[in-house]
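in:
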């Protein structure tokens, strides 16, 4: 950005020296040069003025104007110009310098140069190796070309000296000061201008000299430069210069401003970056960091708070470390995050305080369930033991433990076995309430895969912990009552044996560090109180059964059901259906009718449903009445047997034994089923044939065999019984056990089948109110069977009055509730004959 006129030598551009520097150096040299005397100051110029001849050799300059009273280095390269200089140096050294009008013109002729120029003295300085000559010219005075007198070998012209008009006015003084000031500013904007130049300009007090000096060093168009020379009055020259200087300054200042703005733009970007960094720091301080940092921080916090055991915490920290280094978009990121979420949300150290107030617990258990005394007692024992242990812990600690092998056992594992709807699950809830623990329930029905208990390894896509850990997360306590329902329905197949995983969960010796595959760190289950439930015991793997304390719930008698209904089910249904207790009342007979005619079950689930249905009907009536009467006062609805029939429709069950056993050949068997005992009818029929024997009704092998045994016994006793001996030769016999779609098995129908056969062959019907059970031998002995309580209850439920049992089952009658025992007659038999006697009606 040169602001000074590029004093390009007129004849060539090869001069590599900075002309200005050159000038200054040369100027300094000039006075001391012996051969070339340089005129200095006014005086010298004036001296020379007189010598300016009227004819001068004219050197056209390219793109430069040389002013009087100034010195300038020039480089001359063209042969004709060199000749001119050579000639001049030999003579008076005086030449005329005029600018070519067109700087591009290579060899301007007389018409192609300005007519106003400057007479100058020439000092030849040196010849460069390339043939060009560097010279210093010193302007003397303005000249005007009158006429060209020679064109070759160089231009010559007749000239007239035309000095400038100088006025010594205040205006000139003011213009000068102004120009000096402007120049000072200009120089300040152009750092390349040497200080010497400024000194030079400032020390000039001749207005003409100042004008020419500044014009020499200022950047301006050739036209302007020539214009300054041509103006006659110095005042005008100064004015014009002022304008040019101002314009130049403006340009420079604008340039500087643009530059400064560009700089600001730069610093703005930097500033922004800086501010952003600060913002980050502030946000961090405020806890508003970017998502990942936030998440990692949050997890770190949670890990700290989770109270994990050492191993788990170590693992968690390791995973967190990995997480913080992964990009959030990585698939691995969410896997680790989910894992950590699981870890931190488990109740590692969260537990509830046990309420060990035994009296309160007893009250709670009684509040929730009718009867079930054995179980309630067992639970209270558990509480009592726990309470004592806590109380005596201190003393024990001082003593040496005598038993090293066995670690302290927290968990008893209770297993409730019984028919559906007998209150197993709700008992679990009640225990939780009594103890003040949380309750969580997990069904194991249909679980076939070990991984469902113990989880999948984390390496699997979508892996999750197993059901145990999931339930614990849900319940948010490490010592809940944990109910594992339907433990009898745990399956087993190629995916692995869930019961082996369950073993680990339930075994108090092992579950202290239960290792879920997903978590892969141990979780202490020893504080959990597990309760398992199931309908039957047989299907529970024996290893599991061994570890549990089995408590049986065998189903309720009619009386018990009525009590349960009155005390628990009806109040609950009344509440749930938004009725007020005073709006509805069930008569005892009505409840009995619901139990008898609308349900046939060991538990009370259907009973509750039917009672609920009655309540809803009443609720509908109450709502309708209050709508029409526009008031809430409604009468109490008394539910009678008739009302029950009206609300619930036709009875679903009725006493069918009477009509089924009307004809000979049908006997009533008592059967044990997972749902709590039932009755079965065994039908036998005969037809002409040859000793054929058919058995139908989906009977298992054991049952078929006992049918064979029954038949054989009856045949072997045919004579004694009074059966025609040829009968078997000419007949086929068919035994069918209805409800043919239901598989049946077991030996306990033996006596019943024998009885059905005897009834058929003797043509004596079986008494309608008799039910029987017992295994039969070929010798006619009656062997004991299982499930007596359930069978008797079932018989009672369907309305049978007499039950025939094996003699050796007598002790089992103690299990039968008192009221049932009182209502029924029991015949204990150890010979089949006794059974026939009691069961067969007269002909
Ligand atoms: N002795 C009882 N006293 C009061 N209510 C009872 C009693 N027994 C059962 N119930 C009620 O009967 C309903 C069914 O009980 P629950 O669901 O506990 O049966 P369950 O034994 O778990 O059956 P399942 O084997 O089908 O799971 C519950 O509402 C429960 O409160
Ligand atoms: Mg249940």
């Amino acid at each position: 950005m040169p602001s000074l006129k590029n004093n390009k030598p007129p004849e060539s551009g090869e001069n590599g020296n900075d002309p200005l520097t050159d000038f200054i150096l040369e100027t300094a040299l000039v006075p001391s040069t012996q051969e070339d005397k340089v005129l200095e100051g006014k005086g010298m110029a004036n001296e020379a003025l007189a010598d300016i001849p009227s004819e001068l050799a004219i050197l056209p300059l390219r793109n430069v104007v040389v002013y009087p009273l100034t010195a300038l280095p020039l480089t001359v390269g063209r042969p004709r110009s060199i000749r001119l200089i050579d000639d001049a140096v030999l003579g008076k050294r005086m030449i005329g310098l005029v600018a070519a009008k067109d700087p591009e013109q290579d060899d301007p002729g007389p018409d192609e140069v300005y007519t106003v120029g400057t007479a100058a003295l020439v000092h030849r300085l040196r010849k460069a190796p390339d043939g060009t000559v560097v010279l210093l010219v010193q302007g003397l005075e303005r000249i005007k070309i009158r006429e060209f007198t020679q064109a070759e070998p160089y231009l010559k012209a007749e000239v007239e000296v035309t000095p400038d008009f100088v006025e010594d006015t205040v205006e000139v003084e003011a213009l000068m000061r102004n120009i000096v000031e402007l120049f000072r500013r200009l120089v300040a904007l152009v750092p390349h201008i040497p200080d010497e130049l400024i000194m030079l300009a400032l020390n000039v007090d001749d207005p003409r000299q100042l004008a020419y000096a500044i014009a020499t060093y200022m950047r301006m168009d050739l036209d302007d430069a020539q214009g300054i020379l041509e103006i006659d009055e110095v005042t005008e020259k100064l004015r014009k210069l002022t304008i040019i200087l101002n314009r130049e300054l403006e340009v420079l200042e604008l340039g500087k401003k643009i530059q400064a703005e560009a700089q600001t733009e730069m610093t703005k970007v930097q500033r922004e970056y800086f501010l952003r960094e600060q913002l980050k720091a502030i946000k961090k301080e405020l806890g508003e960091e970017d998502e990942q940092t936030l998440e990692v921080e949050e997890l770190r916090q949670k890990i700290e708070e989770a109270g994990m055991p050492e191993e788990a915490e170590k693992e968690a920290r390791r995973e967190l470390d990995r997480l913080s280094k992964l990009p959030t978009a990585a698939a691995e990121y969410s896997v680790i995050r989910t894992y950590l979420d699981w870890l931190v949300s488990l109740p590692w150290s969260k537990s509830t305080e046990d309420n060990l107030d035994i009296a309160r617990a007893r009250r709670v258990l009684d509040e929730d369930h009718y009867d079930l005394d054995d179980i309630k007692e067992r639970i209270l024992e558990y509480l009592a033991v726990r309470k004592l242990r806590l109380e005596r812990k201190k003393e024990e600690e001082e003593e040496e433990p005598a038993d090293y092998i066995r670690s302290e056992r927290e968990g008893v594992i209770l297993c409730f076995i019984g028919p559906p709807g007998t209150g197993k699950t709700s008992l679990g809830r009640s225990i939780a309430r009594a103890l003040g623990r949380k309750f969580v329930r997990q069904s194991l029905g249909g679980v076939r895969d070990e991984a469902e208990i113990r989880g999948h390894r984390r390496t699997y896509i979508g892996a999750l912990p197993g059901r145990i850990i999931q339930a614990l997360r849900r319940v948010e306590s490490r010592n809940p009552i944990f109910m594992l329902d339907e433990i009898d329905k745990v399956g087993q197949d190629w995916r692995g044996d869930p019961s082996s995983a369950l073993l680990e969960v339930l075994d108090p010796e092992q579950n202290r560090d239960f290792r879920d595959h997903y978590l892969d760190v141990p979780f202490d289950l020893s504080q959990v109180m597990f309760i398992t439930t199931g309908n039957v015991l047989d299907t529970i793997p024996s290893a599991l059964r061994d570890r549990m304390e089995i408590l049986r719930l065998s189903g309720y008698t009619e009386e018990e059901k009525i009590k349960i209904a009155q005390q628990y089910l009806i109040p609950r249904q009344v509440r749930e259906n938004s009725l007020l207790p005073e709006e509805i009342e069930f008569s005892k007979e009505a409840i009995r009718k619901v139990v008898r005619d609308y349900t046939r079950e060991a538990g009370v689930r259907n009973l509750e449903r039917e009672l609920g249905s009655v309540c809803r009907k009443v609720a509908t009536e109450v709502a309708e009445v209050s709508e029409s009467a526009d008031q809430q006062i409604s009468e109490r609805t008394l539910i009678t047997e008739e009302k029950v029939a009206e609300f619930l429709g036709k009875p679903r069950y009725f006493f069918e034994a009477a009509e089924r056993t009307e004809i000979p050949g049908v006997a009533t068997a008592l059967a044990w089923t997972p749902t709590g005992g039932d009755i079965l009818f065994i039908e036998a029929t005969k037809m002409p044939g040859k000793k054929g024997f058919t058995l139908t009704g989906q009977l298992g092998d054991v049952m078929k065999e006992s049918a064979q045994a029954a038949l054989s016994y009856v045949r072997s006793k045919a004579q004694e019984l009074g059966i025609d001996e040829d009968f078997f030769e000419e007949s086929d016999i068919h035994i069918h056990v209805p409800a043919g779609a239901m598989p049946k098995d077991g030996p306990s129908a033996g006596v019943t089948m024998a009885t059905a056969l005897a009834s058929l062959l003797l043509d004596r019907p079986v008494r309608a109110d008799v039910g029987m059970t017992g295994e039969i031998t070929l010798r006619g002995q009656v062997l004991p069977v299982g499930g007596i309580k359930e069978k008797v209850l079932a018989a009672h439920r369907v309305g049978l009055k007499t039950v025939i049992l094996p003699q050796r089952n007598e002790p089992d009658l103690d299990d039968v509730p008192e009221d049932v025992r009182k209502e029924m007659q029991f015949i204990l038999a150890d010979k089949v004959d006794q059974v026939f006697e009691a069961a067969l009606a007269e002909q």
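note: The longest helix spans residues 234-286.
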